[in-house]
Design a protein that fits this description.
single chain; alpha/beta; Rossmann fold; seven-stranded mixed beta sheet; 15 helices
Amino acid sequence: MAYDMIDLDSYQLSDRYARAQGRVFLTGTQALVRIMLDQARRDRQAGENTAGFISGYRGSPLGGVDLEIWRQKARLADAGIEFLPAVNEDLAATAILGAQQATLAADCSVDGVFSMWYGKGPGLDRSGDAFKHGNAYGTAPKGGVLAVAGDDHGCVSSSMPHQSDVAFMAWFMPVLNPASVAEYLSFGEYGIALSRFSGTWVGFKAISETVESGQSVILPQDRVFHIPKFEAPAGGIHVRLSDLPSPEIETRITHKLRAVEAFVEANPIDRRIYDLPDARFGIVTTGKAHLDTLEALRLLGLDEHACRRLGIDIYKVGMVWPLARRDALAFVTGKDEVLVIEEKRGIIESQFKEYFYDWPGAKPRKMVGKYRASGEPLLP
């Protein structure tokens, strides 16, 4: 049914979870709950015997997640999703680790437990040991972990601003960065699919400006993921019984990141906005910074028609780290200048420049972002 054919007078607040298609109103917090409900529905439709698990610790901007989960307790129970509010963030992450190991037990009643951790950025920092071990041990093939980090970029309710991307990177976890509440659902679906294929835990940025906002959302259709050819090492890349301390753990993480690259090439999450084949200038954006960039261009009178006329194309990065090498480099090929607009540290910009070193392709003549070509600060 097309969303514009729905009788708006019949809309109920519960429809934000009950409807499978059309338009609903969601806050960012509600969208996080819906990610799990949608995954349970998809697994049931696919004939999979899975369960869901959520654990975390409240803290702004994710201070209302547990409240919304409790409000939807009956709905989550019907979907086979269990909620365990934790005493702190690292105990929650440890519980998530255990949920991925559940299927190793002979008496486990399901084939996988898809899981969501949530916590404020500083709570993620303090949970490093649990995350490092959880990601190293891996996920179940029909489980998967989405780690939602509430980042308070503006230091509205924190002792200092924080950005969780770098912490996720330190533990070799891919990082997704949705731009809006509308993207939470599709990015959540993508993150769980990526986690299941690669054996990694997947980071999910939920900054204050999005997770604490609300939006009328057209529900996305379920995505069909293409399974790439990938030759796993002996013993595989997913959770297993025997993981004795040894350098082999680091080797397995390297294989997992190769699996991430293969999955992302087969199922791109980055997008070319105008897809101009001969654009002279490129702008690379991510997350809410993408929407801010579009608004800034609009205020300058640079709508799509003007950008096409001037040869300006835009590339929206969905996965901040590791940057999708093939598609990202293809976008900047042959351009005169590329401007990278991202939040906080120059993570995307630095990856581009690392890729350029050994890349035989046509590098852009100039790339700027946090600094001008002369070395002066450009974007704070």
